Amino acid sequence: MTIDRCYCYDVSFATLCDVSCTTGAQTVAALQEEVCFGHNCGLCHPYVRRMLRTGQVTFHEVIAEADEPAPTAHTS
Hints:
Largest sheet: 2 strands, antiparallel
Number of helices: 3
Mean pLDDT: 93
Shape: globular
Number of strands: 2
């Protein structure tokens, strides 16, 4: 199995990676301000977080929320 996109909106992780590089968006929320994806089932969110962290755009394993949790806000 190859996982390479947000299936609800048919947006590839390669496209999202390009948009991230162009705009500087480094979170799912910031990227969603630039591209419509991930608003239905949300299953792409952990993949997008890993993509943002590593640049990987094609996955061959299932990644769950626990594998790539959303970053937590740091308080000073």
